[in-house]
UniProtKB/TrEMBL annotation, chain A:
Recorded topology in the membrane: Multi-pass membrane protein
Protein name stated in the entry: ABC transporter permease
InterPro entries linked: MetI-like, MetI-like_sf
UniProt cross-references to CDD domains, sorted A to Z: TM_PBP2
Lineage of source species: Bacteria, Bacillati, Bacillota, Bacilli, Bacillales
Gene Ontology BP annotations: transmembrane transport
Location of the ABC transmembrane type-1 domain: 87-267
Originating species: Paenibacillus albidus
A Pfam family matched in the record: BPD_transp_1
UniProtKB/TrEMBL annotation, chain B:
Matching InterPro entries: AAA+_ATPase, ABC_transporter-like_ATP-bd, ABC_transporter-like_CS, ABC_transporter_ATP-bind, P-loop_NTPase
An annotated Gene Ontology molecular function: ATP binding
One Pfam assignment: ABC_tran
PROSITE patterns linked to this entry: ABC_TRANSPORTER_1, ABC_TRANSPORTER_2
UniProt name for this protein: ABC transporter ATP-binding protein
Length: 278, 257
């Protein structure tokens, strides 16, 4: 009799727990839907305000254009195919600047970690170069590499390489010295110390500089295209500005926002993949 | 018989930007095979410096250290080093952590890998090979660190306060495990510790250092009866308390210097 009662009590407890959990999940779902709803409303409101503002003359239609016109422009360019070479150009420049910048920056960091002498020698140069607005070097790069792809990628590299080097080098130096002591006590060589401890330990930092570098690369590429390009999204912005076609400027901006976000998300996904085991 | 460790006039100074400070001065010591020696003393007496020198991580400014008759010029697989914390690598699983030394010395193969697994099992870590350090308790992690040090078969083991970061109960268990394992393998060991009763319980000789500069002040030999009992029971043997007080008094004098 008593046992039966106990069994009944524990069964009702299980039920109660299940209910609690169901309630909790429902609440979480509700909260998520709310966030999504408010988010989309904000975006919609922005476009609606823009459209009505321009049509009713609150803002200058010539300068700010308006969404339906911008989207029509984007759609037209996509259908006619005239936009793709520009997108392709800009994306390939950004990708080249991003990959090369990360690689070169990391290699440089490894070099100065390896040789404290080199690190001491290069230190002031790095500080100067890092504090300097690298975009100011643009004209020199154009003269050196000609007005085109190379000059733009080099402009991008000038922005990404040093900051990558500094961040990665710092993470190399902040590895727990006791982890190094562990491998040194087994008689590890400098190469072994680097590959067994320094690199795996600072791997998360290296990966997270990737995210920073995506943004940096876009800055470099767009500025580079402002200066020299004959194609690309940055070129379209400058061209639209010069012929006073602000619909073109706005549409290029929207495309840049979309493509840059896509690229950033890819890197975030890559980061998740690389660090999934920690 | 050739002593395992021999220190001859070892002196070491740290060089800074503003001054050179003498960490240890003129240390002479010899330790025989299978001996378990403890270094105790007030902080700043150069215990860890001395250990680093014997491990080959530091070159002494003067004097020489020989291990098995050979002059120490750098870290070697003959000498194992165990630190205060486990310092397991969070990105490696337990087996890979334990096999680190084998990997670094180029001795990792199927056979040594199996040996590592066996040793892990022996230390009560069966079934944890695939786990990551974050999933283990402090005592278990320190046991992994012990396996990592022992699996390369060092003839000499240097222990830098390996028990001090652990809970008291785990610390006693681990003392037993380490002293039993070392006795069984005939490994020579040097232990640095703050804990006098630990030093007496596990070792055959306790060496008291004094500071400014670090020097050997006095060497105490632990009576056979205490030395031959496992650390947990050694604390109950007659003579233990007396020896404890004797060393304690001497250490007070050394500290007030």
């Amino acid at each position: 009799m008593e046992q039966l009662e106990q069994a009944g009590r524990s069964a009702s407890r299980v039920q109660w727990l299940g209910q609690m959990f169901g309630e909790y999940k429902k609440q979480k779902r509700r909260r998520r839907n709310q966030v999504i709803a408010v988010r989309s409303t904000l975006l919609l409101l922005f476009f609606v305000l823009w459209e009505t503002g321009a049509r009713l003359g609150w803002i200058d239609e010539l300068l700010f254009s308006y969404p339906t016109k911008v989207f029509r422009q984007i759609w037209g360019d996509m259908v006619s195919g005239s936009i793709w070479p520009h997108v392709g150009m800009t994306v390939s420049e950004t990708a080249a600047g991003f990959v090369l910048g990360t690689l070169l920056g990391t290699v440089l960091a490894v070099l100065i970690w390896w040789s404290p002498f080199l690190s001491a020698v290069l230190d002031p140069y790095m500080v100067v170069f890092n504090s300097m607005p690298k975009v100011a070097l643009g004209p020199i790069f154009i003269v050196m590499f000609g007005a085109g792809f190379t000059a733009i990628v080099v402009t991008t590299l000038s922005i990404t390489v040093i900051i990558t080097t500094l961040v990665v080098y710092n993470s190399f130096c902040s590895v727990d010295p006791n982890l190094v002591k562990v491998v040194r006590s087994f008689g590890a060589t400098k190469t072994q110390v680097f590959f067994k401890v320094i690199l795996p330990s600072s791997f998360p930092t290296v990966v997270s500089t990737l995210k920073v570098n995506v943004g940096m690369s876009w800055v470099g590429v767009i500025v580079g295209e402002f200066l020299v390009a004959k194609s690309g999204l940055g070129y379209l912005i400058i061209y639209g500005f010069q012929v006073f076609n602000f619909t073109l400027v706005m549409s290029s901006l929207l495309i840049i926002a979309a493509v840059a976000t896509a690229m950033y998300q890819m890197v975030v996904y890559l980061e998740k993949l690389l660090l999934s085991r920690r | 018989m050739l002593p395992v460790v021999q220190l001859k006039g070892v002196t070491h100074a740290y060089l800074g930007d503003n001054e050179a400070s003498l960490a240890i001065e003129d240390m002479n010591l010899s330790i025989d095979k299978g001996e378990f020696v403890s270094l105790v003393g007030p902080s700043g007496c150069g215990k860890t410096t001395l250990l680093s020198i014997i491990a080959g991580l530091l070159q002494p400014s003067l004097g020489e250290v020989t291990v098995n008759g050979k002059r120490i010029e750098g870290p070697s697989p003959q000498v194992g080093y165990m630190l205060q914390q486990d310092y397991l690598f969070p990105w490696r699983n337990i087996l890979d952590n334990a096999a680190l030394g084998l990997e670094l010395t180029g001795n990792l193969n199927e056979e040594t890998r199996l040996k590592t697994v066996d040793l892990l099992n022996e230390m009560g870590l069966a079934g944890k090979s695939e786990a990551y350090p974050a999933q283990l308790s402090g005592g278990m992690r320190q046991r992994v660190a012990l396996v990592r040090t022992l699996v390369t078969n060092p003839g000499l083991l240097l222990l830098d306060e390996p028990f001090s970061a652990l809970d008291y109960q785990i610390k006693l268990q681990l003392e037993d495990l380490v002293s039993e394992t070392l006795r069984h393998r005939g490994t020579t060991a040097i232990l640095v510790t703050h804990d006098l009763s630990e030093a007496i319980a596990v070792s055959s000789r306790v060496i008291l250092l004094e500071r400014n500069p670090g020097r050997i002040r006095k060497v105490f030999t632990v009576p056979d009866k205490i030395r031959n009992s496992p650390p947990l029971y050694a604390r109950d043997q007659t003579g233990f308390t007396e020896l404890f007080h004797e060393i304690w008094k001497e250490m007070e004098l050394a500290g007030s210097k």
